[in-house]
Amino acid sequence: MIALRPGRKLPRGRDPLRMLLSSTPWRATGYLAGYLVAGPVLFAVAALAVALGLVFMQLTVTVALTVGSAWVVRCCAQVERGRAVLVDEPIPYAYREPGKPGLVGQFKARCGDPVTFRDIACLVLLFPFLLVLDLLALAVWLGLLAGVTLPLWFWSIDSPKSDGGRGTGPWLGGPGHGAPGVRIDNWPAALITAALCLALLLYAAYLVVAAARLHLTVAHTLLRPPPDPLARAKRILTEPGPLALVSHGPLPGLTLSEGHSS
């Protein structure tokens, strides 16, 4: 089971009312809504860069353009990493440094770096999944928000009546949707609908926050540096061990002659 990354600015709230009144669901809303704008742009730019890079890779004279395509993908990934600041700290990154100077070294470092392929997976391959996830969560959340504010604007909606005429108030289902529905055309109906939407909104806050956590988890899994298999060994070598407690000189309070006297 995947543990969702909670995010530094997405604390878990046990009280639904406190959760709704906190900044947590609104930060999650901004994070998800931002992807609806930035996600398609990043997908289009990254997908075009990958396609052009595959074409340029077939020709030796276009090595510089292939390197440029990888650089464009990296820039798009940096935008997605920076967006995480809305709900967490920016996602860290680490790319392979060129082993040799010149275009050949740049080509091997950028096009052969596994991090570049992880960037492509996040920006291009998983774009449909992340877009649908954010759209569904925001549709439920924003739809219930609109229902809560229904008494403020239901009277301004001009909608058809069931008898073919025109009247005031929106339909929930009803004409034009192929299913029976309810028409909100008076204050009592609008207030009852708003109360029901508010009760559901208390728990929809958990839905939008969970969607933001899942999106953040996917971004962290693919865009952050992969774990170093030698990290534990390096930490052991750098940390002080038991031998560091042994003094390399004579004990305090003893002279050199006293320390060697029999």
From TrEMBL:
It comes from the Bacteria. The chain crosses the membrane at residues 28-49, 55-73, 120-153, 187-209. Pfam families: Sensor. Keywords: Membrane, Transmembrane, Transmembrane helix. Residues 31-223 form the Putative sensor domain. InterPro entries: Put_sensor_dom. This is Putative sensor domain-containing protein. It comes from Streptomyces violascens.
